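#dry-run=false #mode=assembly
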Amino acid sequence: MGEESTNFSDGDAVPRVVIVDDHRLFRSGVRGELGDAVNVIGEAGDVDSAVHVIGETLPDLVLLDVHLPGGGGVEVLRRVLAKHPQIRFLALSVSDAAEDVIGVVRGGARGYVTKTISGKELANAIVRVADGDAVFSPRLAGFVLDAFSATDAPPVDPELDRLTQREREVLRHIARGYAYKEVAKELFISVKTVETHVSSVLRKLQLSNRHELSRWATARRLV
Amino acid sequence: METPRLTRAVDGRLLGGVASGIARHLGLEPVVVRLAFMALAVGGLGVAVYVALYFLVPREEVTEEGSEPAEEARRKGRDISQLIAYVGLAAGLGILFLIFGGVYDPLLWFVIFGALGATILWQQANPAERDEWMNTTVSRSRPKSVMRTTAGVLLVVVGVIGFLVFQQQLQEARAGLTFAFTLIAGISLIAAPWIVGLIRERDSERRERIRNAERAELAAHIHDSVLHTLTLIQRRADDPREVQRLARVQERALRSWLYQRPADAETTVTPGLERVAAEVEEEHGVPIEVVCVGDAPIDDGISAMLRAAREAMVNASKYAGTDSISVFGEVDEGEVLVFVRDRGAGFDLGDIPEDRMGVRGSIIGRMERHGGSARIRTEPGEGTEVQLRMPRIAEM
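#status=ok
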């Protein structure tokens, strides 16, 4: 994946991470896999304790499970971001259901990866999100493409409701399994530009009021 | 079909096989012939005819057609009870003849009518009971069963009334009958709502029972399969590849159960591509991630495309030496695109011999035959991406 970025990816510091997941076994597994790449400063198993631990430790990044007792990952996002908007979230789930993915990203997570991701890739994603970038898995890219194209209705706000041709190109490459660096090479642009496009897509995804987005997500209850 | 020669049957015979042999020869049900023999036997003639035929008609040649043992056994068990039934029937008829004094006594016939009707009704009760449990067939056989029931009721009514008429007792019975009918009508009026309610309750209970059974069955199925896989995983713990394969297979099974697709799922691109990927993954053990955007029904071109994509996935699994393959399918208005990409070894396109079927025939050739195109991008060490493109036929 891409090397150039602001701080964590330069190796200046290791991101401080809180892992929120209701499976203890999974938490310790992730902890072991990440090793020295990140500094795990806290863990939580449900919404209330997650909000508490995050408020106490103020990590750079929260690794957030989508399904949590007490309201789910979305609830954690809502309560934490209201007080600490600077904290970044990377959503992690076994679910590939569209409404989970879109829901948690629209709730404020800056990326979404599935739990089958390898330790190395996860560490990469964490560093990237901690630096303020967005991380799209191929599946999320597919969902977003689908969501933004699944309508004939004219957009309410063209600025937010439509993807540019370039953004679409970037997403299609991510969906094809290209890493950011490879996308950049393929489209003759810099990795930085790829990141800008992805962040812009993330912003649109989070801010767009297009009702199709939520309707699409619920209509498509498929993996 | 030509008429079989008259022989004595070996298969499905009760006594000497004469009746079933004749039935086969005439294309009748054996029961009919047997009843005819029995009716004749009451006068004594039938027995003589039967014995004569037994000696005159040659025995059927046994061709070892390998009749299934289970059916054989079932038939054997039935034979004796059927035989007893026929004998009982003959004895009953004989007694009736003695009582009524001859075939020409109309009373006898009304008794027979009544008995026949009752038999039909009793027989009806049994399948009806069965239908209740296996209600898939109930709609198909309903008209027939209604007809039979009507016929049975009619026969019984004719039998009873005829019997009364010829006993000269109808006049006397009329008052009693009127009373009985009125009583029955009154009771029906009172009981009808209750009976209807009972039937409804029974119906809903049955539905609930079916639903519960279905749920329990599915739960058991998943339970079994998951537990089974977990056991296998523990046993194969030293083989990471196999463990991963098992886990993926199980995961897919669970997912498809949890997010059950609509019935027509297999006829569109997305599930089609996912199914192909799942098959290749199961065969070759390399995880394949499928992402799809948009969807369209599968036509000839697209189904060729799916086969080409499958070939590309198989190639990637076999030769790339990678631990994951990405598949991306995209449907837009004009065309369908499929990308199969791996980050594996890659190869030099120039090195493929002209005649190698894999890439040229199964992928490029197949796509071109159906009006599409295929492009392969690869370099040694750079991985491989197969790009498939198929124009969509204008939809109706």
